[in-house]
Amino acid sequence: MDINIRTLQDLLCSHLCSSVRIIERGGGVLMLDTPFSYPDGDHYPIYIQQTSTGGIKLSDGGHTFMHLSYENEVSSFRKGTRGKILDQILGEMGLHEMNGEFFIETSMDGLSEAIFCLGQGLTKVYDIIFLNRARVSSTFYEDLFNIIVNIIPQEKISQDYIDTRMEQAEDYPIDYSIRGKTEDPLFVFGVPNSDKARLTTITLERLLRYRATFDSILVFADQQEIPRKDLARLTNVGGEMVSSLDARDDLSRKILRKAA
Questions:
Q1: Residue 226 phi/psi, 5° resolution?
Q2: How far apart are CA 188 and CA 252, in angstroms?
Q3: Domains of the chain, with CATH numbers?
Q4: How many CB atoms are located within 10 Å of the residue 14 CB?
Q5: What gap in Å lies between CA 145 and CA 156, rounded to an integer?
Q6: pLDDT of residue 148
Q7: What angle do CA 219, 222, 224 make, to 5 degrees?
Q8: Between the N and C ends of the chain, which has fewer C-beta atoms within 10 Å?
Q9: What pLDDT, in 10s, does the model give residues 33-72?
Q10: Cα separation of 206 and 239, whole Å?
């Protein structure tokens, strides 16, 4: 290899150092300006403070959760599947979270490694929003339930409802049963994938076979991802449809029309 390792190392060190600045913010707080950035282009603000024990605390100052809150319900990142992933990231990167602030404590000798751990950890935290709802069914159902309880009081909702009007009903649980305006219940089925589309079709067919009266709403993770034949069979037996979880206003309108 013709590359001079020492020259290359000196070059990298000079370039990396030139892209990092320390800015004094007052009150004993310093801010580290680095190339790390959020998807909108804003750089991660990494704050540096001395701890009471003489160590160093690096913090994002709460800006990561603030950015996430622009288009997401931040509380969802502390519950269910997302909450587990967040805990795993914090453990892997040695980070802590308190009141929406991510931070890491270190010694002066471990400062450079801690900066990279915090930057990498914040990137991983931000990436949680890109969980594929169509593939991660548990997250899809968590999101769907959170949307429904923001439309209808939780006491009116029964999860994994068993309709005893049909035989072997325990084999065909209904995702959500909502007490409606009439005696007929409103059944809400989440459909994150083709397998669930087929199961929902079977459940609805059995309900109709036993002449059970009900209304139904089918909520897809992404309706376009369901194969045509599966969607056609489901359309024949199902009620109203909502194309994705992003169509919240449509879902709210359809639920309120039947259950408010």
A1: -85, 130
A2: 12
A3: 5-130 (3.30.1460), 137-259 (3.40.1350)
A4: 9
A5: 13
A6: 95
A7: 120
A8: N
A9: 877 777 667 778 889 888 888 888 999 999 888 888 876 7
A10: 15
204: which residues sit within 8 A by CB, 6+ positions away?
Answer: 189, 216, 234, 237, 238
Identify whether the C-beta of residue 58 lies closer than 8 Å to the C-beta of residue 115: yes
Output the CA–CA distances (angstroms, integers) from residue 27 to 66, 168, 194, 230, in the order listed.
22, 68, 57, 63
Angle 227-228-234 from CA coordinates, rounded to 5°: 95
Q: Are 46 and 38 in contact (CB under 8 A)?
A: no
| CB-CB contact of 258 with 180 (8 Å) | yes
**Residue of 115, 94, 100, 147 lying closest to 31 (CA atoms):** 115
Q: What tokens does 33 get?
A: 């300006």
Does residue 132 surpass a pLDDT of 60?
no
